[in-house]
User: What shape does this take?
Amino acid sequence: MSQDVILLVGGRSTEHDASLHSYAHLVPALLADRELKVTAVVYIDPEGGRWRHDAVPGDISALCDRSAAQPLTPAALLELLGSGPSVFSLLFGTEGEDGAWQGVGEVFDLPGSFGPVSAAAVSMHKLAFSAAAVALEPRLSRPDSWLIRADDPRHGPANALAALNGRPCVVKPNSMGASLLTTYLAEPDLASLTEAVGEISGYDTFALVQEYIEGEEYTVGVFEDAEGPHILPIARAQTASPLLGHAEKHRNGLVRVEFTDENSTVGKTLADICLRTYRLMGFRLWCRFDLIWDRHRDRPVILEANSMPGLMRGSIYPVMLERAGHSLADLVRAGVGAHGRTGPAKVLRYDIEPHTVPSLHES
Assistant: This one.
């Protein structure tokens, strides 16, 4: 018996193209699977227009072809998503993995892969996530960090520069993925720091300045099925540049990936830390943690979490899945399955007796 699935793709996000390319990589696996049936594909264009495809578009150009799709009002979209088939969301970044669509799924009891609001929202805020992760897991540390209003950088860069005291740093958007607009500054000064923050201002409210950590960079994936969450093979990235940035992640030949021995001290430690963090933060279905093993302090430093890792051809998460014996279709099956959707009761009724609060001046 097949499982009906609706795919949600695109979105008003700087990661719109990541969604399209993830779709292009995922669809052949779904069409070849006997247990999954895609009954509709909803494409949200960069302007927020909503388009329904009843036939599954075979590539990106067909997906974005509005002439072959039916426009949807917000009410019609909600009606479709709640019509019975489970929804697998490929909306990345803003209005995708920041809690917005997770909230829609929660409020309207939409079946599918949306997951909890809190885990999505906190992980989208890099500074908040790193602070929460360190509080939950004492074996972790985080870089010295400074949050700056990207649209009003009058005082922030100078304050961060003074605190850095000559140390190299990384400047990144606080709430964007794919290492977009991320800059490494070996010798930061006020002009270069202000310029890096300014480049972010049109796309993110906050820029994050962090001390540069020297060490080995690891990414740890988690996949949750009916049996619970599992750590996927742990990858270590090696680059010629000091930063694993956007170009290194998305162009051929700029990064070399090796997989860590799961029985090594580093492998066991990272697996245990990330599985514990995944559970305590309340993630569901999937996640990918990025860390650096600080070579000077010999301890793991948490950078960020991706509550919805990219599924593009060449992305690391699908490779991790495959090495662990799972397919992209397995991921969708787990995402639209029933496990993990129950939670605590939302309503606790209690008596409220009307009363008055005496004034402090009453005798």
